[in-house]
Amino acid sequence: MPVFIPRKAKKCANRILKSPVTDISAFAALVRSLIRLNPLGCTSYSSVRRNYPPVKVIRERYTAKFVYTNPAGKRIGTSSEVYDSVDGYETGIAAMISNLANIQAHRGKCRHVQESDLFSAILKCHDPDDGIYFVCLARNSIAVSSYTGDSIRKKVEMWADSVPALA
Q: Global pTM?
């Protein structure tokens, strides 16, 4: 089983996945489960008269990759689009594939290359003992950063080990 490899300068560690998360649905379910089920034992907190949830998504990026082919099947162009939500990603793919002006400009058929897509979400977490840290989930890796105690890295590692898609 892959382990989290600590880095030297600041407290952060990452794990490269053996195989990427299969698709956007599986990735979104993974992020939702981390927020709703809170397997890391995060707690809500207050700061400057504001209340914050235990786990909060602070940034999402979804990149869809496209290839344009001529009638003979030869690749004649590529493009990628970046979205900040799962809905934007799904809607954007449909828009790109059906965008006649773009298809005419490339003089070829547009095809979504799903296996090349990239997904990432950064979650801000609050540990009752060690404060705020970040978990970055990507299609092919997980990183935990800005933590103070190794217990946080171990919690994230145990959670990742318990999720079959992250082994």
A: 0.86
